[in-house]
Design brief:
Elements lengths: L1 H10 L16 E7 L2 E7 L6 H12 L7 E7 L29 E8 L7 H14 L4 E5 L7 H4 L8 E3 L4 E2 L1 E3 L2 E5 L15 H13 L6 E7 L6 H9 L4 E6 L3 H16 L4 E12 L6 E2 L6 H8 L4 E7 L1 H9 L3 H4 L4 H17 L1
Parallel strand pairs: 2-3, 4-10, 4-11, 5-9, 5-10, 11-12, 12-14
Antiparallel strand pairs: 1-2, 1-6, 6-7, 8-9, 12-13
Helix pairs in contact: 3-11, 5-6
The structure holds adenosine-5'-triphosphate (ATP) and magnesium ion.
């Protein structure tokens, strides 16, 4: 990750020749990488050191290939002292199955499904925005590290994550929600991400625990499709309050959703309920509901699995359009049928977890 390399390079730059005991990294208050241009905000311990500190930053970063231009600014207040790390695990505990709680986050909600393309990311983003509009403090983590779509959905393409003076990742704020995606850390959209085993585990853990989320009522996790490495790693290691399962009312989608539901049950994550996406189409001319993929299948599935249906969301071309434009429908058209469905779901989810 570029930001880590940057902090390492700054850390290796001693300031002893200036009579300071800190290294350069310890003076960093904020850092932001946009494309190949880096903004660094440094604490200025003594006036008159501006030029020499700027030169040291440039020298330290000259070897970092991603950084072409460095802008250094100065602040008179020192960076906050790092908070003590979380208590270490108890001796003898099995680290692989100790479910860690994300500090300051009341409820972590996973949005999953067995099948791809059923609208998980759309649901995760709109649910997060609806909860925020209802007055809750909300975060959205794009845990689909192989195919992040949250940057597009929220109009945050090209956005870069920053690291603060405590060396923690600072999420990007949009529509009142704190957002983090691997998309904010990759040099380009086309950059492939390949993580497996312990590396994957490390990346995901960093994404949840090395982040300055602040106090949140809900952190929504947008999972990749399926029941693979990411889902299992998270399920076994992280204290997740509940899962929301997204499906469309077709047999092919429901068959995969059954697998996802069983997986959540196996790893003891309560399934809060099912969201039926693309449930029907409301014809603009006669306002009738047309059940394009059939009616009743999701209800049958839900009752067979003892699950609640949290809501049904109609098919609406505006959803896809607005998603591509980076303004989810809950924000762009809050009075639409789709947005109302999302607000209804948000209220039920909040109720179930309260
Ligand atoms: N209710 C809806 N009406 C119309 N289009 C929708 C609706 N829900 C989702 N879509 C569209 O369907 C496509 C797939 O949605 P989305 O990316 O949210 O699915 P996903 O399950 O996250 O996919 P993946 O498995 O690839 O992560 C997107 O183009 C989205 O805009
Ligand atoms: Mg998705």
């Amino acid at each position: 990750m570029a930001v880590k390399d940057i902090m390492d390079a700054l850390r290796s730059e001693s300031l002893e020749d200036l009579g300071l005991k800190e290294n350069l990294a310890q003076l960093v208050k904020d850092i932001k990488l946009v494309g190949s241009e880096l903004d660094v905000l440094l604490y200025l311990p003594k006036t008159g050191l501006e030029d020499v500190l700027r030169a040291k930053v440039e020298k330290a970063l000259s070897e970092i290939p991603d950084v072409e231009k460095v802008n250094v600014k100065f602040a008179s207040a020192p960076p906050q002292q790092p908070q003590p790390q979380q208590a270490p695990q108890m001796p003898g505990a099995q680290p692989a199955f100790t479910k860690r709680k994300v500090p300051e986050v009341k409820h972590l909600i996973a949005v999953g499904s067995g099948k791809g393309g059923v609208g998980k990311s759309t649901v995760a983003a709109n649910l997060a925005l609806a909860l925020a509009k209802l007055g809750y403090r909300v975060g959205l983590l794009d845990a689909d590290i192989y195919g992040p779509s949250v940057p597009t959905l929220l109009g945050l393409k090209g956005e870069r994550a920053t690291v603060n003076e405590r060396n923690r990742i600072v999420p990007v704020e949009k529509f009142g929600v704190k957002v983090l995606s691997i998309g904010f850390m990759l040099p380009s959209e086309e950059t492939p991400v390949i993580w497996r085993g312990p590396m994957l585990m490390k990346a995901l853990t960093q994404f949840l625990f090395d982040v300055e989320w602040g106090e949140l009522d809900y952190l929504i996790l947008d999972l990749p499709p399926g029941t693979g490495d990411v889902q299992l790693t998270l399920a076994q290691n992280v204290d997740i309050s509940g899962a929301v399962v997204v499906t469309t009312p077709q047999d092919v989608a429901l068959a995969d959703v059954k697998k996802a539901t069983s997986m959540f049950k196996e790893v003891q994550i309560p399934v809060l309920g099912v969201i039926e996406n693309m449930a029907y189409f409301i014809c603009p001319s006669d306002k009738q509901k047309y059940y394009i993929f059939g009616k009743g299948k999701t209800a049958e599935f839900a009752s067979a699995y003892g699950l609640k249906i949290l809501g049904s969301i109609p098919i609406d071309p505006e959803v896809a359009e607005k998603s591509d434009e980076g303004e989810p429908v809950v924000v762009s058209n809050p009075d639409s049928d789709v947005a109302r469905a999302f607000y209804g779901i948000a209220r039920i989810v909040a109720q179930e977890l309260s």
